Backbone:
């Protein structure tokens, strides 16, 4: 029997196999858990499953979502970016400082904030590729460094009283849907397509699975790493801008702890923390699940501490289910 | 004749899409070396994984000293005295020799703490019983040579009172003197009544130390015979199901113009002042000891570690190559030495591995054309007769020879003009080896220029039109096919005998002198 004949005989049931693989994927498992969670929560309170509440949750999760998208890329390559929250804070401060203290037009201050975010991410990437600093250590250092910069520049002053148009992004709706949610959805679609369909996306998986072999295959590993860390910085900056627009004020502690929320969404979404596998769809489901749990539990009167415990348990549970399924698939 | 310690009867094991073992028999008696032979993909690895409790067979029985047993895990097999030494040694590099030997079953003091003194002294005893008296048991395993690490693995098996020791390609990565030492240790183990399952691609080793030999082919049991009633030809034809008359079929190819030329190529500490030419249709062999700068010069040409000085010319025009991507644009392909860590992405499927070098060509505006990608995978499988169930198979699950074919396939997909192959047939079976040699020969006939780095003298002598010899980062000799002999190449590789106070023997380590 030749190899070709073998492959031919395998084609016939291919679609059932694909369906089975789809059902077994971490994304499907997670979607199932999400649906169950929604059903349970909706029986506990009638304030939860309303269009108004759900759209509002979409508004609240946008900033973390914008960061979780490039975070997925980075974790797929086996890296991590802990400095995202600090970059968001720094960008937010630069926005307020540029406009209020430097007297820049607000439009220019927004651009400044985004550019600062991108530069901060680029600096992370540059050190990681040039001096081979492990991403964990590099971004742990800049987590402190960028936050320190933000606080130094802000000097404990907050900036408020932005012109009315500035709040459009964070507080208004178009066709009944919060404005920032459009950005999140568009960004998610674009990043998902890039990761799953393009040569760039493929190279990220290759790097995450075997960086050495990727380099030996002619993949521009260092260039691509630089791109994703820069993208992460840019998106963090953008998230900082969205946050300022939503809460109407700029403070130097903005974005604290976001790195953990973003990483939790990515990992819950099935992206391996060791790199090499994962998807944007998974990240988005993870993001939604965490937000709905937070909100639903709060509405049913569960305290904040207990909510964190539940979220932690869901993370562990989904990981367990996934590893059991993986083991069965591999037949070990 | 003594009854077997371990018997495997009617073992069948299937994986999705493939039957890895089909009604296979194997048994091992005390004090014998039982060689297990077969091409890559014949089922040897699966069989030893069944014997060592990694896989449970779909059907068939496992009998230890007359009693049927079931191995649910490697631990169960170990408890029955069956130990396995895999190709990739499974030791903890950051722990000491003694800690590795007693990992998981350390001697305890009465208070339940680890008894370090006993652990060290018992480690020394075990090593001494194997005539190993030159090892410091407090040293970190990571700092040992591969040969020494292997001895630690053997000692570890003995510390668990192993009665069956399965060795998977124990000589694949060790030097000639380590091989001799391994054989004397095997002799000692035989005298103690340990049964040894020995897997190797080197037939001469099977004849050197084997008592019986079992051959598998395509997952089926072919035969078990006493080694002294076998000949090499007979074994090979049993393994491949056909006779291989010429192992090195370098066919005559018209030699054309110079494609690649390097002048005074230098990279600090690894290569100095290397100059040579490579012509269309030519296979140039590159010999040298391990560490002589062979792979290093190839990686300089490929842009992986760019040159510090010197120049590279393609078709007579000087080019600047600082990344593999640039080298690929000039039509250079490099098959690295270690397919597992450098050549392949084992966790990804065959399709993604073959397309990785040509993603841009398979895509439109960076969107990968899945259909074209799958087509490439199918044509690679067909062209190189890769034994895989399809483009979706993870390459890590393929056998060594088939993995190597995937590496070849991914580079042929780039349609290179210059093909640099680094140890193209290391650790693969005779059948796959002959196929790769035939392929290289055909590629040369089609006008490809091939630089072949190899440690195997017969391969160098059989395949090359010209032979370059590297020593200590320099190109020290060049022979035509007619001039080349094992002796003059060997002398050039080692330089002046007694150089640096090293004996000829130690310098010979890492070269395979098999004819």
Residues:
């Amino acid at each position: 029997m030749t190899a070709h004949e073998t492959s031919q005989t395998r084609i016939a049931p291919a679609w059932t196999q694909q369906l089975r693989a789809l059902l077994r994927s971490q994304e499907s498992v997670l979607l199932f858990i999400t649906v169950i969670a929604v059903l349970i929560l909706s029986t506990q309170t009638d304030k939860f499953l309303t269009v108004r509440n759900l759209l509002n949750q979409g508004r609240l999760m946008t900033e973390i979502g914008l960061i979780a998208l490039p975070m997925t890329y980075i974790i797929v390559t086996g890296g991590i970016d802990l400095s995202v929250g600090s970059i968001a804070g720094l960008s937010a401060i630069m926005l307020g400082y540029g406009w209020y203290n430097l007297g820049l037009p607000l439009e220019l201050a927004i651009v400044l904030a985004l550019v600062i975010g991108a530069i901060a991410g680029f600096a992370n990437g540059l050190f990681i590729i040039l001096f081979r600093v492990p991403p964990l250590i590099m971004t742990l250092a800049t987590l402190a460094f960028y936050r320190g910069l933000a606080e130094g520049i802000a000097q404990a002053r907050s900036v408020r009283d932005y012109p009315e148009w500035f709040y459009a992004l964070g507080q208004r709706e178009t066709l009944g849907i919060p404005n920032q949610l459009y950005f999140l959805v568009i960004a998610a679609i674009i990043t998902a397509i890039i990761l799953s369909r393009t040569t760039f996306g493929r190279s990220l998986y290759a790097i995450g699975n075997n960086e050495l072999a990727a380099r030996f295959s002619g993949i521009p590993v260092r260039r691509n790493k630089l791109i994703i860390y820069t993208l992460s910085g840019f998106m963090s900056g953008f998230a900082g801008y969205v946050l300022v627009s939503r809460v109407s004020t700029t403070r130097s502690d903005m974005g604290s702890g976001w790195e953990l929320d973003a990483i939790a969404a990515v990992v819950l979404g099935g992206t391996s923390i060791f790199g090499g596998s994962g998807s944007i769809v998974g990240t988005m489901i993870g993001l939604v699940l965490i937000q709905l749990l937070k909100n639903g539990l709060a509405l049913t009167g569960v305290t904040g501490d207990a909510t964190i415990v539940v979220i932690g348990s869901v993370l562990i549970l989904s990981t367990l289910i996934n590893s059991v399924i993986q083991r069965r698939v591999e037949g070990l | 004749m003594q009854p077997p310690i371990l018997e495997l009867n009617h073992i069948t094991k299937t994986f999705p899409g493939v039957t890895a073992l089909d009604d296979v028999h194997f048994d091992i008696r005390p004090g014998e070396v039982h060689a297990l032979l077969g091409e890559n993909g014949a089922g040897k690895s699966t069989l030893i994984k069944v014997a060592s409790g990694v896989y449970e067979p779909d059907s068939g029985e496992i009998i230890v000293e007359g009693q049927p047993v079931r191995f649910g895990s490697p631990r169960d097999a170990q408890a029955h005295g069956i130990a396995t030494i895999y190709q990739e040694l499974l030791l903890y590099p950051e722990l000491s020799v003694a800690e590795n030997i007693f990992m998981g079953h350390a001697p305890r003091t009465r208070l339940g703490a680890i008894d370090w003194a006993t652990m060290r002294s018992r480690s020394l005893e075990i090593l001494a019983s194997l005539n190993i008296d030159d090892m410091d048991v407090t040293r970190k395993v990571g700092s040992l040579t591969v040969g020494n690490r292997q001895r630690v693995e053997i000692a570890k098996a003995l510390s668990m009172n192993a009665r069956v020791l399965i060795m998977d390609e124990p000589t694949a990565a060790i030097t000639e003197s380590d091989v001799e030492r391994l054989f004397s240790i095997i002799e000692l183990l035989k005298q103690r009544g340990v049964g040894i399952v020995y897997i190797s691609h080197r037939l001469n080793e099977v004849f050197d130390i084997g008592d019986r030999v079992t051959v598998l082919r395509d997952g089926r049991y072919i035969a078990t015979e006493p080694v002294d009633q076998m000949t090499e030809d007979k074994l090979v034809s049993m393994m491949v199901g056909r006779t291989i008359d010429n192992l090195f079929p370098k066919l005559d190819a018209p030699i054309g113009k110079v494609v690649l030329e390097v002048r005074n190529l230098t990279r600090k500490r690894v290569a100095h002042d290397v100059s040579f030419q490579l012509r269309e249709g030519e296979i140039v062999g590159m010999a040298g000891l391990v560490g002589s700068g062979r792979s290093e010069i190839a990686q300089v040409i490929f842009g992986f570690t760019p040159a510090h000085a010197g120049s590279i010319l393609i078709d007579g025009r000087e080019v600047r190559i600082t990344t593999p991507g640039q080298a690929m644009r000039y039509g250079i392909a490099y098959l690295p030495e270690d397919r597992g860590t450098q050549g392949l992405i084992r966790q990804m499927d065959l399709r993604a591995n073959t397309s990785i070098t040509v993603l841009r060509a398979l895509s439109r505006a960076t969107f990968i054309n899945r259909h074209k990608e799958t087509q490439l995978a199918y044509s690679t499988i067909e062209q190189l007769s890769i034994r895989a169930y399809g483009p979706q198979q993870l390459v890590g699950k393929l056998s060594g020879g088939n993995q190597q074919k995937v590496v070849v396939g991914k580079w042929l997909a780039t349609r290179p003009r210059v093909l640099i192959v680094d140890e193209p047939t290391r650790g693969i079976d005779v059948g796959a080896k002959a196929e790769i040699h035939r392929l290289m020969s055909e590629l040369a006939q089609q006008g490809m220029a091939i630089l072949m780095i190899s440690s195997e003298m017969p391969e160098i002598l059989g395949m090359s039109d010209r032979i370059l010899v590297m020593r200590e980062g320099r190109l020290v000799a060049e022979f035509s096919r007619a001039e080349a002999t094992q002796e003059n190449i060997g002398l050039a590789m080692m330089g002046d005998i007694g150089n640096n106070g090293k004996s000829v023997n130690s310098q010979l380590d890492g070269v395979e002198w098999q004819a």
Notes: Chain A touches chain B at residues 2-4, 6-7, 10-11, 197-200, 202-203, 205-206, 209-210, 212-220, 276-277, 331-332 (CB under 8 Å). The first strand of chain A starts at residue 173 and ends at 174. The two ends of chain A are 26 Å apart (CA to CA). Strands of chain A lie at 173-174, 177-178.
